[in-house]
Amino acid sequence: MPQKRVVSDENATNAHYYQQSSERGRVIAVAWQELLKSMTSRESADRSKAATLFISAVGREVGFIDTTPTPSPKVSKEFVCERHVKFSQDIPRVLGQTVHVFVVSGSQFSAQDYRYLTGTLSDAGLGQRLFVVVVPGHAPEAKSESRRDQPGLVVIDSEEIKEMIVHPEPCRVFYRIIRQQTKMTLLQPYNHFGAVRSAMFFGRQAQLRRIMLHPESNFAIYGGRRIGKSSLLTKLHSELCKDTQNRPVYFTAQGVKDVLDFSNRLLTNVLQLHLGSRTSALAFDLERTRSEIQRHILVDRRRVTLLIDEVDDLVAVDQPKAEPIMNMLRSLNEELHDRFRIVMAGYRRLHERLISYYSPAMNFLTPMPLGGLDSESARRLIEVPTHEYLGYDFSEPKVVQMALDYSSRSPWQIQHFCEILVQLLAQEHKDTIEEDTVRQVYNDFAFRSEIVETTLANLSPVQMAIVCLFLDSERFTREEVYESFKEHRLPTDLPFLSRQLDQLVKFGVFTPPAKKNDNTFTFAYSYLPRIIGEVESPSYLLAEAKNQIKRRYRRWR
After folding, report:
1. Structure confidence by residue, pLDDT tens digits, 317-339
2. Which member of 103, 114, 116, 482 lies 3.0 to 4.6 Å from 51 by CB, making a disulfide possible if both were Cys?
3. Any idea what the Cα angle at residue 380 is, between residues 310 and 416, rounded to 5°?
């Protein structure tokens, strides 16, 4: 790497920026002035100390902490400082990992220097992790190459630093700089598969508060696929871990094969045993499992909260055998009451047990239906990651409302919509979100297809028939559903149809009647009828629903 020139005196210029600095940028301005002054010092220790203080000052405003091991190895003598920092926020993805920050020892960082450093760092994880180079001068050529190649090596020079100093929100400027020089695959905060990370969790405060404030109660969270049940359990686990008197235990019942398999999972997670191949030899029946767990919890002084995800698979193996697993869990709760409780999450099968008078789940688990997000939380899920974490601006407020209308209040739909949106903005090198871009995402066939696929997978045959019959109706009543089913020779038991409509309201497909004596329903997601009609054939879907109803409900054949 070629020798750097010493930084010239920029005190007058930086004094001007200090006077113009925002309240939050003032700390950065002071640290930046000290860094520039230190570059004239012959003592490397002075320069290193000033650089470290500058990184700390930026970290306080941007949201990262210094995690540099001691001693910290340097990549090159041309850097006065190399620090490892970790972002306190779990967003974007790469920023949840360790980020390496270097401060150049001079005022120049050329394209040749940039290529040299990318080659040096190629074996250190460049492309999988983030490296940031701070230049106390100008580096236009290096920044140009970084924006073009986007290898994960971000160059920040005096121009960006000064912009951070005067901006009222320095963190937004910082994230925008990172975004402009890094592949979006490394930074993408949105993910519409699986549980979301803590910083991407918005809303559900009422459910969390209810569970946290009633430690003596057991809860059954039920809702459609990808509505956010796993994310809620994960967030609950995180909140419970903050209290040392609690011991949350999370595991999934997905794919559970039989009672023995469930016993193994329960013991493995609660007792932290690793039974492995010894499971069949031990043959832990439910009674022995119950006694082992009871003994363990009585020794442990903490309150154990069992968080079981994907409970429908558990119900499928438990119900045919008179529900021995549910009976065992209920027995444990009754015996240990204030020391042991259960929060489980599932969908249709779990809900059926909650309303069955013959199931031990009734009067044991408190039902907690999970639908779409409230409007404010849905809006924040759109705005916060795009605007605050990635530095994008919305051209006008109505663009946010457009994105909200197109993506509904379903968290996974918002995640999917914004995931496509952010990727599109990165491909087109845009910094502002405009109407045309939002409309382009809505017209994306992959987005529409997945909405239809997930929505239909969440519906029972009767619910699918209701949806298909009223796709062209702006609003309808219970009586109209009854008459329409009668016309199509489908089940016409009014209490049964009312329960199906109520479930569709709880799961966010329909909006409830606006007034107490009102009996009309509308689609919660106004674009759903149009999307279903454009992606699928409603007449074919209705015929399939009829066939399934006739097979399932023989008396209505």
Report:
1. 999 989 999 999 999 999 998 89
2. 103
3. 50
